[in-house]
Design a protein that fits this description.
Blueprint lengths: L1 E7 L3 H6 L7 E10 L5 H14 L8 H9 L3 E8 L2 E12 L4 E10 L8 H15 L4 E3 L7 H9 L16
Parallel strand pairs: 5-6
Antiparallel strand pairs: 1-2, 2-3, 3-4, 4-5
Length: 171
């Protein structure tokens, strides 16, 4: 998938309300692709991106990345501008007793590339992967502090659920 658009150095939401004089525009060409293999380049990109999502996250090992890329339930998407990885998102499609579901995980765009539609392109492609793999529903969760993400998801059709999220850490 390739997304191209006229983007300003300001956020997309500010563009929608109109810009003052003197705004600078430039074209960006974001290509969304599936990670085909675990490489040192991918590991380096995740080492830079994951702390921007959550500073307590550890850099995944190459072995972990190899296992993830090999897992048929997981699709790791990369947003690139040329050869540079600007962001990532994972979509996991799985079957429950009731339906086929998808879960979008770890959506993160480099701070320097935010406000250019990269996150939106990643999430839209996650939805397409889920649709193509037969999912009836797509779920995700987002920290309340991620204000831009929490504005994006409803625009893409996600509904905020009245639910509790529980976690049990095993390791």
């Amino acid at each position: 998938m390739s997304c191209q658009g006229l983007i300003s150095g300001v956020s997309l939401s500010a563009m929608g309300r109109g810009l003052g004089r003197g705004a600078t525009f430039y074209w960006v060409n974001v290509r969304i692709e599936s990670a085909a293999e675990a490489t040192p380049e991918l590991q380096k990109a995740l080492a830079a991106l994951m702390p921007q999502l959550n500073p307590s996250l550890q850099v995944p090992s190459l072995d972990h990345l190899k296992a993830m890329v090999a897992d048929p339930a997981v699709t790791l998407l990369l947003a690139r501008d040329g050869s540079e990885i600007l962001g990532t998102a994972a979509v996991v499609v799985y079957t429950t007793p009731i339906w086929v579901k998808a879960r979008i995980e770890d959506v993160v765009v480099d701070q320097a590339a935010r406000g250019r539609g990269v996150g939106e392109a990643l999430v839209k492609e996650c939805i397409e992967v889920a649709r193509h793999r037969g999912a009836a529903v797509v779920e995700l969760q987002s920290a309340r502090s991620r204000e831009a993400a929490n504005r994006l998801y409803p625009r893409l059709g996600f509904e905020l659920r009245d639910s509790n999220v529980y976690r049990l850490t095993l390791r």
